[in-house]
Amino acid sequence: MDFIQDLIVIIQYFILGLVQGVTEPIPISSSGHLIIFRELFGIEAKGLSFEIFVNFASLLAVLLIYKEDIIRLIKNTYLFLFKRDKTARSDFMFVVYLVIATIPVGVVGVLFGDYLGEVLSGTNVVGVTLLITAVAIWFIRNLRGRRLEGDLTMKDAVIVGLAQAVAVTPGISRSGASIVSAMLVGMRQDTALRFAFLLYIPVSLGTTILEVPSLVASPEFQALLIPNIIAFVTSFVATYFALKWFMNIMAHGNLKYFSYYCVVVGLLVIFFL
User: Fold this and answer.
1) How far apart are CA 176 and CA 149, in angstroms?
2) Cα dist. 183→55, 144, 199, 261 in Å?
3) Torsion sign (Cα): 69, 211, 170, 203
């Protein structure tokens, strides 16, 4: 009997890791889908700590995919600051804009993150916020911006940062909010995608540093060590392939299908959960 129960828990955590990994890079809200799947299957991985843990796996996948961009930005920031290399200024300013865009979500997360995660974690809220995500994606589905990384401004960074801060609310897609706002200010699809996911790195890294050490040391985590590891590995692999797939979607401008999806799931959640 214990074996069957342990197997069920492993399958449940595998499902949560898969849901996190698949939904994190695409604009349909990973936090909202984790809440939905917990409700559907009665999975007891409650609270933000587990979400932050599997989100760390997604972060590692994003780091792997964007490693060349990250290395280039770090190198050119160093060259501009310490070697006065003017050709590196564009990448240095891109890093500055990423830092600026991180501030709003950092402030909101520190001040209201726990409150929003607990109070607004009901399925009805997720249903409504998925509909909001659908409307936002539909609004920008046909936009074709022209602005590249070197064309960005401080104002652009603030707008994208504020949009990502809104995504602290469960059901509002973080990647969706960042990409929608980036495209609204005129960024090209590839630039918007790169900015959104490079912005994801410091935000996710910050929450990971704050939360994961205490989570891993907790008795609850130790008691479910194998299921948590399975969720982590699954989230990493799923995020990697989902982000690669989403890059191709962005290149071909098929965002409207995510809008359709969010409408259908949002309505189902509102009326049936």
Assistant:
1) 19
2) 25, 8, 15, 20
3) negative
Tokens of 49: 């700590």
* Token digits of residue 246: 């989403």
CA distance 23 to 131: 16
Dig out the tokens for 130 from the structure. Answer: 């998925």
Global pTM? 0.90
Q: 5: which residues sit within 8 A by CB, 6+ positions away?
A: none
What is d(CA 74, CA 92) in angstroms, rounded to the nearest whole number?
8
Phi, psi of 172 (to 5 degrees): -90, 120
Give me the tens of pLDDT residue by residue for the chain, a chain 273 residues long: 477 888 888 998 999 999 999 999 999 988 889 888 888 877 765 555 778 889 999 999 999 999 999 999 999 999 999 988 888 999 999 999 999 999 988 788 767 666 666 666 678 889 999 999 999 999 988 888 888 888 889 999 999 999 988 888 878 888 889 999 999 999 998 899 999 999 999 888 887 887 777 777 777 777 788 888 999 999 999 999 999 999 998 888 788 999 999 999 999 999 987
Half-sphere exposure of 138 (CA within 13 A, CB side): 11
3-state secondary structure of 25: coil
Q: Tally Cβ neighbours within 10 Å of residue 7.
A: 10
Residue type, 50: F
CA distance 241 to 25: 9
